[in-house]
């Protein structure tokens, strides 16, 4: 599941493959930009911003993409077989004389003026892995609505950028509170740990092929995806429930023994 660390890895792969080279192939397979042609332009850089990717090309243009749940960018040597999915799932192709980047299942893909990037990423809070990281501002953002459940507040990219559903569940476990605890009720000592821990986890995983919050490869996560399996600390069964408004409910995992705070009934 793409989160701030994996999006940064994707940006690094794209940057290494494309930056400083002239595009010899350009194919944007979304109706609005199907006739756009970037061939002959030099790719300047590929920059991550939270969960967004900004591919900047000469002429003042930026290709903005977002991976959401299952989108991906794959890079192939020219002549190599593409393996990211069936052809009908391809939304973008960018290539040079050596490499081809293929975007699969991209729910967001748009071409805009580089000067207009703020329109698509200006709403984001401080990026946990970015040069703009500001923990004081991020905490102030989180506390704007103290009644909001902590899990929902962490997922709101307007508060801080880069945390997704996996890190939400894992951070709440490591803090010993449920994702349904109102963010304003987070004990002061745990609130002080929250952003340091979030940044530490993303930095630890920014270059790792397999994300780990346990410090191990197997098991690599404390609670996420472990419903009905024993908690790694206390051996109680991990619980799962959906969290969020009805339009964007997310599967959420927690240990009913190790984590304090409100929680729905198991399986709800």
From TrEMBL:
UniProt keyword tRNA processing present: no
EC number of this enzyme: 4.2.99.18
InterPro entries cross-referenced by the UniProt entry: FPG_cat (IPR012319), FPG_N (IPR035937), H2TH_FPG (IPR015886), Nei2_N (IPR044090), Ribosomal_uS13-like_H2TH (IPR010979), Znf_DNA_glyclase/AP_lyase (IPR000214)
FPG-type domain span: 222-260
Highest taxon in the source lineage: Bacteria
Keywords: DNA damage, DNA repair, DNA-binding, Glycosidase, Hydrolase, Lyase, Metal-binding, Multifunctional enzyme, Zinc, Zinc-finger
Residues making up the signal peptide according to the UniProt record: none
Top-level EC class: lyase
Pfam families: Fapy_DNA_glyco, H2TH
Formamidopyrimidine-DNA glycosylase catalytic domain sequence ranges: 2-103
PANTHER family: ENDONUCLEASE 8
Similarity comment: Belongs to the FPG family.
Protein name (record): DNA-(apurinic or apyrimidinic site) lyase
Species, as recorded: Streptomyces prasinus
């Amino acid at each position: 599941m793409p989160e701030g660390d994996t999006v940064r890895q994707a940006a690094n792969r794209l940057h290494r493959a494309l930056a400083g080279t002239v595009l010899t192939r350009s194919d944007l397979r979304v109706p609005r930009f199907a006739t756009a042609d970037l061939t002959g332009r030099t790719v300047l850089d590929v920059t991550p911003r939270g969960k967004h990717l900004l591919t900047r090309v000469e002429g003042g243009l930026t290709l903005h993409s977002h991976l959401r749940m299952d989108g991906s960018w794959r890079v192939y040597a020219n002549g190599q077989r593409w393996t990211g999915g069936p052809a009908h799932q391809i939304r973008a192709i960018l290539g040079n004389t050596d490499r081809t980047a293929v975007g699969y299942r991209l729910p967001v893909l748009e071409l805009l003026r580089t000067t207009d990037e703020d329109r698509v990423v200006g709403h984001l809070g401080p990026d946990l892995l970015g040069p703009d990281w500001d923990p004081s501002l991020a905490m102030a953002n989180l506390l704007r609505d103290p009644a909001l459940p902590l899990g929902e507040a962490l997922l709101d990219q307007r508060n801080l950028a880069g945390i997704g559903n996996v890190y939400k569940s894992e951070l709440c476990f490591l803090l010993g509170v449920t994702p349904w605890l109102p963010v304003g009720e987070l004990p002061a000592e745990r609130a002080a740990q929250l952003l340091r821990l979030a940044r530490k986890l993303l930095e630890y995983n920014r270059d790792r092929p397999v994300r780990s919050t346990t410090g191990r490869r197997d098991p690599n996560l404390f609670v996420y995806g472990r419903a009905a399996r024993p908690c790694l600390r206390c051996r109680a069964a991990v619980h799962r429930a959906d969290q969020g408004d009805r339009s964007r409910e997310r599967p959420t995992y927690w240990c009913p023994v190790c984590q304090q705070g409100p929680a729905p009934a198991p399986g709800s």
